[in-house]
Amino acid sequence: MLVANILCMSSSTEHAESDAGAAAIPVPGPAATRPSKRERTLAALLGAGLDLFERQGYEQTTVAEIARAAGVTEMTFFRYFPAKEHLLLDDPYDPVLIEAIAEQPRDAAPLLRAARGIRSAWRALPEPETPIIRRRVRVAAATPALRGAMWRSTGNTEQAIIEQLVADGAAPDVARVAAASVLAALVAGLFIWAEDERRSLGEAIERALDVIEVAA
User: Which range, of 15-24, 145-154, 173-182, averages the lowest pLDDT?
Assistant: First the structure.
């Protein structure tokens, strides 16, 4: 799911960035740990890909160019990422969101349950801090093919939300509309955050969910 993906991005990207920094600035002492070759390669691929996407565009950038800029082979690139788009889109992390929806009062409307459940889950998760995450979302938001991929990535999340709402008593058609509406709001909040340096991701998501709750 796309917003949960950002949390995955936060974890994996901040780790990669810190690894890259550790490689450049040795830290003395027995407790110091050196990043593994895999971690250094991941950081190099992420950095090279983003630089090229921002400089010449996502569609115009090839895997071969990314690999060359990162100092590795194309074969090595595909050991880390199954396709170019995976530099920007990560795997979903849905269980926390679904559990939070399930915990909402069942007498509330399905749309409110979905919106408040996701809001609850979001507040319990850390705010992404590294600028590279905003850069990744901005590239995805500006690339039509990637916007479509982000929407496709919500499919499993949407189905999981529908199933939870139906299991809790909602009519299937109502559950489907509720799930689609909440995900649409989250996409909008995510893109607004990527384009507005003044906002935190938390503020953008909260605002998007406020609109949903008022409409409900």
Answer: 15-24
**Helix 155-167 to helix 144-153 angle, to the nearest 10 degrees?**
30
Q: What CA–CA distance (Å, rounded) separates 18 from 11?
A: 11
Residue type, 151: W
What three-state secondary structure class fits 75?
helix
Find out whether 145 and 59 touch, Cβ atoms under 8 Å: yes
For 26, phi then psi, to 5°, come to: -60, 140
| Integer CA distances (angstroms), 203 to 35, 125, 168, 186, 197, in order | 34, 13, 29, 12, 12
* Domains of the chain and any CATH numbers: 2-84 (1.10.10.60), 95-215 (1.10.357.10)
Rounded-to-integer distance, Cα 97 and Cα 117, Å: 7
pLDDT in tens, 88-110: 765 445 677 888 999 999 999 99
Q: If residue 216 lies in a helix (H) or strand (E), which one and from where to where? A: none
Mark residue 169 as left, alpha or beta (left: phi above 0; alpha: psi -120 to 50; beta: remaining): left
- The Cα 206–Cα 127 span in angstroms is 12
Check if the beta carbon of residue 61 is closer than 8 Å to that of residue 49.
yes
Measured CA to CA, the distance from residue 93 to residue 175 in angstroms comes to 20
- Burial category of 55 from C-beta neighbours within 10 Å (exposed 0-12, middle 13-18, buried 19 and up): exposed
